[in-house]
Amino acid sequence: MKILAFDSSSKALSVALVDNDVLLGEITLNLKKNHSTTLMTSVDFLMHQSAVEASELDRIVVAQGPGSYTGLRLAATVGKTLAYSLNKDIVGVSSLFAIARRLKTDRAVVPVMDARRGNAYAALYQEDNEVVIGQHCVFRDFLANLDKNLPLVFTGETENFVADIEAAGFTNFEIIEDSLDKLPSAYQIALFGKKLKPVAVHGFAPNYLKKVEAEEKWLETHEESENATGEYVQRI
């Protein structure tokens, strides 16, 4: 099975091409650039260098979120366009999993994406199992609810949370500092995405884990109701 996988949910961009679990090529850019100018360029480069035609692909795997709203919408749009135009399968994998899966460890892994102002997107994985579901949270509160005796590895965008982690009272923990190990891996989400059931192309959407700011402001000015979010979507 030939799989094209990509993650544009954070500052880093990762694109991989895999054939029957063998990595043909992977590009990772850890640059403050607009992924809209680099995603398809990276895809085209990998396909050309690997001598793989788009028609030969079997599946598109996309990091579905959480993360940058712009990056998630870009990935979803590109993924859906490729899957629809080529009549290929599409599946989504958590962006947090894309960070966690790069590490090879027996300990539980906490991938972190900085959501600013003390907030984060975080989860807890043991091997491939999501033990604590990915969530948008006040990171100190997230830490307070973790088992203090569980051996943990924190990875991802941890720079602004080091003091909170160190003060949380964990008896056995590590904060990954190596820049490569902290980045998402499109290769790993390709391997995991191979196991998943494909979804309908038109129904594929980013998993933001948090309402976009415009939606939050709209909801604040309207009465709460079961249809509030639906009404917002219809209006825009």
UniProtKB/TrEMBL annotation:
Domain Gcp-like: 30-218
InterPro entries given in the database record: ATPase_NBD, Gcp-like_dom, T6A_TsaB
Gene name per UniProt: tsaB
Gene3D superfamilies reported in the protein's UniProt record: 3.30.420.40
Keywords assigned: Acyltransferase, Transferase
GO cellular component: cytosol
Cited PANTHER family: TRNA N6-ADENOSINE THREONYLCARBAMOYLTRANSFERASE, TRNA THREONYLCARBAMOYLADENOSINE BIOSYNTHESIS PROTEIN TSAB
GO BP, sorted A to Z: tRNA threonylcarbamoyladenosine modification
Source organism of the structure: Lactococcus petauri
EC number of the protein: 2.3.1.234
UniProt-recorded name of the protein: tRNA (Adenosine(37)-N6)-threonylcarbamoyltransferase complex dimerization subunit type 1 TsaB
Pfam families listed in its UniProt record: TsaD (PF00814)
Lineage, broadest ranks: Bacteria, Bacillati, Bacillota, Bacilli, Lactobacillales
Transmembrane helix listed as a keyword: no
The organism's place on the tree of life at top rank: Bacteria
GO MF, any single term: tRNA N(6)-L-threonylcarbamoyladenine synthase activity
